[in-house]
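Sequence in, structure out. Go.
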Amino acid sequence: MKKEKELSSGKNSQMREVWRRLRKNKPAIAGLTILVVLILFAVFADVIADYDNVVIKQNGSVRLQPPSVKYWFGTDAFGRDIFARIVHGARISLTIGLVTTSVSVIIGGLIGSTVAYWGGWIDIIIMRFCDIMSCIPTMLMALAIVAALGPSMTNLLIAIIFTNIPIYIRFIRSTVLTVVDMDYIEAAKACGTGNFRIIRKHILVNVIGPIIVQATLSIAAMILIAAALSFLGLGVRPPRPEWGAMLSDSREYLRTAPYLMVFPGLAIILSALSFNLLGDGLRDALDPRLKS
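Output:
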């Protein structure tokens, strides 16, 4: 019992130290602040604006209204409130980024850590597959998958996850290889600890820092890929409010109503920027060489 308390105290102390170093990084705190605001928008989107009556309902009498007190970001060509659509779009974009990254990390982590621990012919086959996948641009592969399966939210998630799993397999494998021959791994083997327990309790725990940083940075890339596919008409289908699709719909009004492109574009930029800033801050905070 005493040993468990000491371990818990040590973990809490380590987390406090990471948070202390993160707080000193102003760009990271700025990114975290933007991210918190976006998450609050996504969580309370239904409270801020009713989905059926404001977000997707068309009203031709107020179409293409410029930003005003009543319509903060103006209205689109169908008379829909752009601010309300961007707020609900935050829910879609953040869901895509978090779900695709989480699934990719879990699957890639299990495969990457397993092949790094055992090696052999399985490692060779999987790494050659990853080499083949890395020759194809991620965006092009996702575009081909969605075009083959058909444009929808589910197919978009499948395409992004499939294209990113090889990236995480390669990254986590290389990270695990740096610790798999450490003395504490050999000690665990000598004590008779099972292989999967060693991977789960000793290897993945000690490489979780770089994985968290990589995952945080990848969420921004996932959001950009989803927005690009929706911009091309191969992502989230209308009338659902997705930032990339909103950009696509506003192209013909670039000269007459530029605000239609400005606000969705800013939403994409700020969301990607927040994750990048936070990821850079976490990398510095989790790196023991930067404690000073």
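Check: Residues 1-7 have pLDDT under 50 and may be disordered. The domain at 33-290 is CATH 1.10.3720.10 (MetI-like fold).
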